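User: Hey, my collaborator sent me this sequence without any context and asked if I could get a structure. I don't really work with proteins. Can you help?
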Amino acid sequence: MSQKSYHILIVDDARDIREPLGQYLRKQGVRTSLAANAAEARQTIEQAGIDLAILDIMMPGEDGLSLCRWMVANTSIPVIMLTAMADETDRIVGLELGADDYLVKPFNPRELLARIKAVLRRMPERQYQSTHHRFAGWVHDGASKWLNHDDGREVSLTTSENRLLTVFLQSPNTILSRATLLDLTAGREEKAFDRTIDNQIGRLRKKIEDDPKAPKLLITERGDGYVLAVEAVVPL
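Assistant: No problem. I've predicted the 3D structure and written it out in structure-token form, which is a compact way to encode the shape of the chain:
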């Protein structure tokens, strides 16, 4: 992977964080743009070809979570969130919104660079999202993050929901553990009390199940994980 081919956006209201971090990344051969707030970030995103954004959650005005939500809905730019040590809830919300990874402050710039490389390495694997899948009366369009049902229903998916459903569609009728799902969708290991996947499953069920409380498509296998209990095919 050539770092010089990527353009990274750092969004943080703390000048003593964003500028030294930008200098460090540029020394590593990474093209870097800086933004002090969400407004500057939006302008940069609209004017420059950004390949990955690093967002601080706690910013005056529009915070990082709101900006992340906008980016997930309007761009395909991967996001790494920067959070304070005590902001566990914000970290979970960020991941549920579709952030690709997070890093807790204070952090080592070398670790952030490693996280950036890991997220960018996964980007080519996401080309599978252009594939359509049909299952249980639904047609999934991964590129647009939409589901269409034979009865006329249309459902929009978040980035995280879209990745999760795509993983299931690639391995139907296969039990996938929480750890496997987290690794395949976020590229990180499961930690104790991490309920990110459970929360995403719950939201996905509300969108595709006739009765989310008695699911027939996304089934829980107690102690093992989850399974998409239907056939999935690629339409001709």
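In plain terms: Residues 109-122 form the longest helix (14 residues). You can pass these tokens on to your collaborator as they are.
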